[in-house]
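User: Hi! Is it possible to get a structure for several chains at once, not just one? Here's what I have:
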Amino acid sequence: MVGGGPGSYVAGFHRKAAGLDEEIELVAGAFSSKPEKSYEMGKILCLNPERVYGSYKEMAQREAGLPDGEKLDFVSIVTPNYLHFPVAKEFILKGFNILCDKPLVMDLNEATELLKLVKKHDVLFAVTYNYTGYPMAKQAKEMIRQGMLGDILKVIVEYLCNYVPVNTDIKSIKKDFWRLDPARVGSSSCLADLGSHAENLSNYVTGLKIERVFADLKSFVSGCELENDATILLQYKNGAKGSITQSQVLTGEENNLNIRVYGSKASLAWYQNNPAVLSVRFLDKPEVLFKANNDYLEPLVKNSTRLPPGHPEAFIEAFANIYRNFARTVRARKYMEEAGPFDNDFPTIEDGYSGMNFIDKVIKSFKTSSWVDI
Amino acid sequence: MVGGGPGSYVAGFHRKAAGLDEEIELVAGAFSSKPEKSYEMGKILCLNPERVYGSYKEMAQREAGLPDGEKLDFVSIVTPNYLHFPVAKEFILKGFNILCDKPLVMDLNEATELLKLVKKHDVLFAVTYNYTGYPMAKQAKEMIRQGMLGDILKVIVEYLCNYVPVNTDIKSIKKDFWRLDPARVGSSSCLADLGSHAENLSNYVTGLKIERVFADLKSFVSGCELENDATILLQYKNGAKGSITQSQVLTGEENNLNIRVYGSKASLAWYQNNPAVLSVRFLDKPEVLFKANNDYLEPLVKNSTRLPPGHPEAFIEAFANIYRNFARTVRARKYMEEAGPFDNDFPTIEDGYSGMNFIDKVIKSFKTSSWVDI
Amino acid sequence: MVGGGPGSYVAGFHRKAAGLDEEIELVAGAFSSKPEKSYEMGKILCLNPERVYGSYKEMAQREAGLPDGEKLDFVSIVTPNYLHFPVAKEFILKGFNILCDKPLVMDLNEATELLKLVKKHDVLFAVTYNYTGYPMAKQAKEMIRQGMLGDILKVIVEYLCNYVPVNTDIKSIKKDFWRLDPARVGSSSCLADLGSHAENLSNYVTGLKIERVFADLKSFVSGCELENDATILLQYKNGAKGSITQSQVLTGEENNLNIRVYGSKASLAWYQNNPAVLSVRFLDKPEVLFKANNDYLEPLVKNSTRLPPGHPEAFIEAFANIYRNFARTVRARKYMEEAGPFDNDFPTIEDGYSGMNFIDKVIKSFKTSSWVDI
Amino acid sequence: MVGGGPGSYVAGFHRKAAGLDEEIELVAGAFSSKPEKSYEMGKILCLNPERVYGSYKEMAQREAGLPDGEKLDFVSIVTPNYLHFPVAKEFILKGFNILCDKPLVMDLNEATELLKLVKKHDVLFAVTYNYTGYPMAKQAKEMIRQGMLGDILKVIVEYLCNYVPVNTDIKSIKKDFWRLDPARVGSSSCLADLGSHAENLSNYVTGLKIERVFADLKSFVSGCELENDATILLQYKNGAKGSITQSQVLTGEENNLNIRVYGSKASLAWYQNNPAVLSVRFLDKPEVLFKANNDYLEPLVKNSTRLPPGHPEAFIEAFANIYRNFARTVRARKYMEEAGPFDNDFPTIEDGYSGMNFIDKVIKSFKTSSWVDI
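Assistant: Yes, the chains can be modeled jointly so their relative placement is included. Here is the combined structure:
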C-alpha cells in the first residue's frame, strides 16, 4: 500500500475491504511522504518493519528485488490524486500490478500516458470505482444487458453531497482540505471526486457510450478556483438523453449517489444510500423491488454477496468486491489458472481513462458554453 | 364552464374540486363544440337547460345579458389549449372573471395579448397550476420566504410521466391524443403539459427568478414534431443553479412531480406522489419530516387543509384550494369586502404568462444550442 | 342527516364524501339536540328551512309524512355513539334506510335489538367503516379471495393514534372529549373508536372469522374508566393466528391503521397513511408494489377510483365509496333496477353487529384473563 | 473458535466481524465434532496446524497448558445450541474468557448452572446478541436513558422471518435443519432463534424489566414439536404494555427485527432492515430521522461506527461492535488497564440468562393459558 498514513480514512476503507474475505494480506507499505509517519503506521498495522518504507521509491526499489514467493502480488495506491501518476508509473516500470484509488490521475495527459504504460508493461490495473461493487448495481447492469428494459431512452445520475462548507474562507478550508487545491487534485474538484463515479456508474450499469456533453459548473466557495457543483447534460450514442447532477455543497445530502435508467419496456432506480434495493417498473405492471442476497438475483449478483437475505451488507462489502475480484484475477494470472466467470468484474485502466476524458470534456464544454464530443 | 364534455377527465377534476368546499356552484356551461354533446353534458349535471349552450359565443352573449344577481361570478375554461385564448377573450370583453386551465394559451404572442386584455378590462384571472395548491408545497414556500434555508444555491425540479407510448405510430396516437398535435396544443407538448407546471412550482416555492435557460429536447415518437422529453439547465438571478427534467415517456413514472431546494442553512424536498410529507434537512442536524394537517405548520398551510392529521388529503383537495381561493377573491371584490389573508394564494395571469415565456425561451435555446435569457 | 352541528368535524367528512360524486344531495337534517344550533347549521348549508328540524323525532315524524317523490332516500346518522340506537330505531320504525357512523351502538344489547329491527322492517343499513372504502384495501381483499396468498397463517392489524393526552386530568379532558365518557360512548373508548375499525378491516380483507380473543387493556389517563390502549391476540377459525394493537396515546402516531396478512404463498401489507400502495411479497420472488388507479388492478378496485395513476386520492374518496355504493343500492331498490356488480360493497348492519360483539368479548377476556370465544 | 466448520455461515459472520477492526486474531480452533472437518477448516483459514484440534476437549486441554503470552485471550463458541453448555463449561473450568453465540444454552437449568460457573471462576463472558451492536439501536437506548421519551407507555417488538417452509414434511426439513430438532436446540425453536433477540433488544433499548408474559405459540409445520410462530403480550414493571411478535414462517419477511417504543414525550422506531435510520417523533413536532455516522449522535453511538455519513455500515459492523468491545474489555483486564468508557457495551452472561428465563416463562404461559411472572 502506498499512502494511507495515520488519519487517512479512505485508506481505512481500503484495508477493511481488502481484508474482509481473508484472501488478501497487507504485507508492505510506504504510508506517508514523511518517513516517520510511514513507520508509525507500519507499527499500528503490526507489519514487518523491514517492509515499511520511508518513500514509495524506496519501496518500489526494494520490493522489486524480492524473490518471487515473497514479492507483492499488487500495489494499492491510496495517496492524494497528484501522486497517483508518479507512484503508479514507478511500480508499473518494475512490473507490479496496480490497484489505484479514483480519479485515475490529475488530467487527461497523465491518463493517456498511464494507459500507454499499462499496455506496454502488460500489468493488471484496477481503479476503485467502488460504487459499482454494490450487488444491486450489478443486478441493474445485468437486467439492462439482457434487454429487459428495451431501448434505453433516458439516464439520470445524481451524486449529491455536502462536505464543502459554503460560507467559509477558502484559505481556512484549504489548509485541511486537499480536495479543493488544484495543486493536489488537478483541474477539477467536484468532477474528480464525484463526477467520475457518476460517469463510471452510468457506463457500468447502462453499457451505453456518452457521445456529447454540455455542462454548467459553479464554485459556491468564494475564492475557490475549482467547481463545487455541476449539472451535465448527456447525449448517448444510441440516441438516449441523460444528465449527471453532482455537488459538494448540498445541505443534508449524505453521499447520495443514485441512478435511474428508463427504457421502452421498463425502468430502474438504484440509490447508494439504500443499496440493497433495486426498484424496477415495467409497462402496465406493478413496481418490483429486487432485494440483495436473494436467490432470484442474477449469478453475477449472487457472486458478490456474503450473507443471507435480510442481513444487510453495505459500503465495505461493495468495496471488498472490487478488491476480491482484482485479487482473484491477479492470482489466476500468477498461477496461470483460469479465472472465475466473474473475476474480471472490476474497473480497469480503461475505465479510469474514460473518467479523466469525461472530466476534460465537461470542463471544455463549460468554458465554451457548447456541446463537446466525448 | 366552457369545455368538459362527456369523457373529459380534466373537467371532472375541476368540478369535484370546485364543489368540495360547498362555496361554488356550477350553473351554466358550453361543454363542447358540438351542441348536442354540450346539451347531453348539461343533462348529466342536472343543470337548468336554459343555461346550457351550444357554443361558448352563445354562452358569453346570453350570460352577459343576465341581471347581476344571476350573472356568473366567473367562467372556468377547461377546453384543449387552442381554445383558451379565444374563449377567454370572448368572456373578458364582456367583463367576466376567468379561471383557466394551464398552459395559459398556445404561444407567447397569445399570452402577451391576453395579459393586456386582462389588465385593460380589469377582470380577475386564475390559472389552475393545481400542484401549487398542495399544502406541503405551501409549507416549503413559507419556510424559504422566511429565510429558513439561507441563501438558495440549487433547485432541482422533475416532472416525470409515462403517458405517451414510444413504440407506436404517431398517426394512430394522434387520433385520440390531442396533446401531441401542434394545431391543438401549440409549439410544444411536453413543455406545455409538464414544463409549465414545473416552472410554476419553482417560482412559487423558491420565490426566485429564472434568469437564463439551456435546453435539450427530444421527441421519442417517430413522426412526432413536438418534444416528449426535455432537460433544462437553469441559472437563477440570485446566482443559484438548477434544472428541470420532464418527460412523457418514462416507463413506470406516475405523474412524478417533485422539487428539491438546497440552501446554505437547510434544504427541502417535496414529491407530489407523497404529497403530505415535506422533508427538511438542516446543517448538522437530523432530517425533519413535516406532515400535512398538523398544528405545527405555517398559517398559510393550515388554511389549505380540511382534515385532522393522519387523514390524508390529496389531488382533489389541492385543486380545490385554487378554486376556493379564487372564488373567495371574486366574492370579496363583488361585495367589496376585505379578502381573507390567504385568499390571494392562487396562480394569476402573470403566472400563466411566465409559463408561456419560459416555454418560448426553452425552445429558442434548444434551436440555437445556446443559453437564452428569460 | 342527524347530528353534525356546527363544529362537528366528522359530519364534515360525511358531507364532503356524500357530495363528491354528485349522486347524493343533502336535503334535510336535525343537526343538533339544541334546536337553535340545528337551524344555524341548516342555514350554513343553505337548506330549505322547512326541512331543518329541532329534533330527530320531529324530523322522523314530518319526513315520514312527505309524498314519495320528496321523501328522503336514506338518513345519515353522525351523532355521538349514545344516540345511534334511538335515532336509528326512530327512523327504521318509519321505514327509512339508514347510514350510520361507527361504532354501531353502545353495547351488544343495543346491537342485537337493532339487528332485529333492521331485519323486521327490511330497511337497508350501512355502517361507515370508511377505511374499507380505500381502493388498495379492496385489492388486498380480492387477492386473498382469489387464493393468491394460499392458506392464511397470520394476520397483524394495528390502529395506532395519539389523540388522548396522557398527562392531563381526566376531568379537564372529559369536558371537551365525549370519547372518554362512558355515558356517551358506552363500555369502551379505544375499542369502540379504533378496535371496531381494526376488526372490520381484518374481516373485510381476509374473509376469515375470528374464533377466540385474549386481550390486555390499559387506561393511561389517571381517573379514566375506559381503556386507551389494547393489545388483542386473535385465533382464527382456519387456524391462523393474529393480533390487533390499538391505542389512543402513542406519541407521534397519526391515525396509523395498517394490516399485514401472511399466507403460505404470499403476504401483503397496507397502511392507511400511504393508502395508494399495496405491498405484496411472493415466495422466492421480489416484492411487488401495487399502486392505486392503475389498469392492472382488480375490477372491484378500479370501480372505486376516480383519477388516473399518480393523481393521489385519499380519505374523502374512500369515505365517498361507502356513500356512493350504499346510495346506488338504495336507488336500485327504490326503482327496482338491478344493482351494479359492486354496489353491495359497503359495510352492513351485520358488520356493525360483529364489531359490537367483538368489543364485548374483548372486554370479557380482559376481565377474566382468559381466552373468550367470539 | 469452537464450531464453525466448512459450510457454517454463522461462523463466517463471526470471523468477518472479529477481523474487521484488526484487533482480534483467530489462532486456534476445534471447528467440528468430526476431526477431519476441523483440520480441513484449519487449512482453509491458514492456521497453524498445531492449534487446530479434533475436539473441543482436546483444545481446552492443550490450550490451557500454553504459556501466558501464547494463551488464547478468549474462546468463541459458534456450535449448535446443544453444545454451548458443555463447551463453555469445559473452557470456563480452565479459566478462559468466553464469547458465545445465542441463545445461551438449551434451557433454564443449563443457564442457571452456567451463570454460577461464570461467577465462580470469574471469567468474562459475552453473548452475541448482535443486533444490539447496531449504532442506531444504541442511539435509541441513549435517548431513552436520558429521559427524552418521558415515561415509557408501550413497547412493540417484532422479529419476522421466513426460513421455515410451511408445506413440507418435517422429516425432510429436519435432516438439514437442526433448528427444528429439540435434541439440538432445546425446548423451543422460534423463541430460541428469534425471541431471545427480541427480548434482548427490548431490554437493551428500553432499560425496562419485563414483569409478566402471556403467550400464544403455534407450529405451522405438520409434525413439528417446536413452535414456529409466537405472539407474546408483555407487562413491564413500570406499568408499560408491550408485545413481541416473532415468526419463522412469514412469507416475504427477510430478517425483519424492529422495535417501537412510545413514551409520554416522544416515541421512536428502529428497523434492522434499514439500520442506519432512527425515527423519533415528539409531541406536536415533526418527525425526526437520526442517521448513522453523523456528528449529532450520542458518544456511545459514534464510538460504534467506522465510516463517514452516507457510507452505509450494516450487519458485519454491528456484529464487530460486540466482538471489539468484548475484546477490549478482555485486554483491559489482562493488562490491568482502565477500559474505555464504552468497552463494557456488550451483552453478558446475565443477558444470556435473561433470554433463557424469558423463553422458559413464555412456554409456561402458553401451556397454562395464563399470565406468568418473569
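The mean pLDDT of chain C is 94. Chain C is about 35% helix and 20% strand.

User: Great, thank you!
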